[in-house]
Design a protein that fits this description.
single chain; 220 residues; 12 helices; 66% helix
Length: 220
């Protein structure tokens, strides 16, 4: 896998998004008052409103970062992942990959697949850390096992190419098949491109292993 320039790396980072909160029936000021009183649901709604520019407020990444930081400090993995992304991209805060990595590490420890994927990306590309392919694969694999389809594709390619791990064609095809079955277009294209580099038996075995894995890990 070739290294990406910094801009492409940032585009590849994953954002953890909760399902949109139910629309509040109160105004933005009343919602802000509830958030300032410490009501977690209101804090989350306000952070998302500022992030997306909805709910009667203009998009304001600085305000969004303020409220995501409060949620992240309470241990909310989704907020930690989003705040890390904002630090990585410099949205509402000064760009700081070390701070991004700190928040992603906290979220990854809570098994947040988006944070795990993002840690994999920075280790894969050596952005803010020494390039470390085994460490990248570790985090991509955890994200893949949590259902992150882009991570499933990357794990498949790393196994197939022997990047950060001994080459294992069947394992690579298995993860690519899982990602492809989950609708990941890059994995679907990769299977078409590299399928003829594996034997019919390897392809058949990979399909069987992928089906077993998917039965044991239904979509969340």
């Amino acid at each position: 896998m070739r290294s990406l320039p910094a801009a492409a790396l940032l585009a590849a980072l994953a954002l953890h998004c909760h399902a949109p909160a139910a629309q509040e029936t109160v105004g933005a000021e009343a919602l802000r008052a509830r958030a300032e009183a410490g009501e977690v649901r209101a804090m989350r709604s306000l952070a998302e409103s500022y992030y997306l520019g909805r709910g009667g407020v203009a998009q304001d990444f600085t305000a969004a970062a303020h409220w995501y930081r409060k949620l992240a400090a309470r241990g909310e993995a989704g907020a930690q992942t989003t705040l890390g992304l904002m630090y990585a991209r410099g949205w509402g805060v000064a760009p700081n990959l070390a701070e991004a990595r700190r928040w992603w590490s906290l979220a990854a420890a809570q098994n947040d697949p988006g944070a795990q994927h993002n840690l994999g990306m920075i280790y894969l590309q050596g952005q803010g850390v020494a390039r470390d392919l085994p460490q990248a694969l570790h985090w991509f694999r955890r994200a893949a096992e949590g259902g992150h389809v882009a991570a499933q594709r990357i794990v498949g390619l790393m196994y197939f190419d022997g990047k950060g791990v001994a080459r294992d064609v069947e394992a690579g095809l298995t993860w690519l098949t899982i990602a492809a079955e989950n609708g990941e277009e890059g994995a679907q294209q990769a299977l078409q491109t590299i399928g003829d580099k594996a034997s019919a038996q390897q392809r058949s075995e990979a399909r069987a292993r992928a089906q077993e894995w998917m039965k044991a890990h239904p979509p969340r």
